[in-house]
Amino acid sequence: MVTMRNLIVNAEKYKADLSQLPNNFVHIGGVFVEAMSVCFPETPGTDEKFLAACATEAEWVHKEIDGDTNNYMLCPSVVLEDPNVATVLDQLIARYPNFCGVRQICNFEPSWPRNKQALGNPLINQQWIAGFRLLAQRKLSFDAQLNPSQFVQVISSLMYQVLMCFCV
Question: In this structure, what are the phi and psi dihedrals at residue 72, rounded to the nearest 5 degrees?
Fold first, then answer.
């Protein structure tokens, strides 16, 4: 039977999965990218519940990878359209030395649930774009899940405006 507990991949389960790989595979670390934004499809990013969930997930992951002998980085969800996003980014930088960037699901038409129901197209949301620009100022990367139809929009509007590491 599949339960929520079975679906959670913690550091121990991750390493157990990697142990099944051939002996010539050497695991030295990785980057955790956020996974929980899909749990809040109807919640606006500025909702306290969603903001708290983002912070809780970052803390949980930090505890999972902190002190590990492998080199792990943290790329959590951050609500870029939040008017207080600069403070949130600065707190993450101060709290987690392995915080390297932000990941967000940006799919629109066809849309990922939160974008269809609560956010809209983040790539044209001016508040979101303002938060996005703060990443480059802090030398943080951005990992985006996009539809192929959005690639041109990202390159022409967002990447052109800032110099940063942008993962698609």
Answer: -115, 140
The DSSP secondary structure of the chain, one letter per residue, reads ---HHHH---HHHHHHHHTTS-TT----EEEEE---GGG-TT--TTSHHHHHHHHHHHHHHHHHHTT-SSEEEEE----TTSTTHHHHHHHHHHH-TTB-EEEEE--TTTTPHHIIIII--GGG-HHHHHHHHHHHHTT-EEEEE--GGGHHHIIIIIITT--S-EE-
Token pair of 137, please? 């100022």
- Rounded Cα–Cα distance for residues 32 and 103 (Å): 10
Q: Phi and psi for 109 in degrees, rounded to 5?
A: 50, 80
**131, 142, 149: which is closest to 168 by C-alpha?**
142
Residue 119 carries which side chain, given as an amino acid letter? Answer: L
Residue range 25-63, pLDDT digits in tens: 888 888 888 766 667 767 777 778 888 888 888 898 899
